[in-house]
């Protein structure tokens, strides 16, 4: 059976603040919400879901050793849109491995990278 798609599910401390940040800073739209338990944010072809923090993780800060990587074309336009509105982890740069990218840190502390191939 083939895989059909994927979406990131992020645990957040405050659903309202997270939705507001993703809408006002990153240009996403909240397309579905169930109280403070869950929300689905979308922009173009990207979906990011939020969930309430639950279980033994409820009182810990969200942590992820990786990042969320979103492909954008043209990435320079997105950089211009976000550079003065978001907390920048590293500015736009062209890397030797064939990507032009930048990264931000969202309101929950998650690292989000935006990139485009240079070939």
What would your notes on this structure say?
15% of the residues lie in helices and 42% in strands. The protein has 119 residues and is α/β, with parallel strands linked by helices. It folds into two domains: 50 residues, 2,3-Dihydroxybiphenyl 1,2-Dioxygenase, domain 1 (Roll); 55 residues, 2,3-Dihydroxybiphenyl 1,2-Dioxygenase, domain 1 (Roll), CATH 3.10.180.10. It has a four-stranded mixed sheet, with helices on one face. The radius of gyration is 15 Å and the shape is globular. The protein starts with 7 loop residues before the first strand and ends with a strand. The mean pLDDT is 92.
CATH superfamily of the largest domain: 2,3-Dihydroxybiphenyl 1,2-Dioxygenase, domain 1
Shape: globular
Helix content: 10-25%
The separation of the N and C termini measures: 33 Å
Overall pLDDT confidence: 92
How can the largest sheet be summarized? Answer: 4 strands, mixed
The total domain count is: 2
Low-confidence parts: none
CATH fold group of the largest domain: 2,3-Dihydroxybiphenyl 1,2-Dioxygenase, domain 1
Number of helices: 2
What class, by secondary structure content? Answer: alpha/beta
Kindly estimate the percentage of residues that lie in beta strands according to DSSP.
35-45%
Number of strands: 8
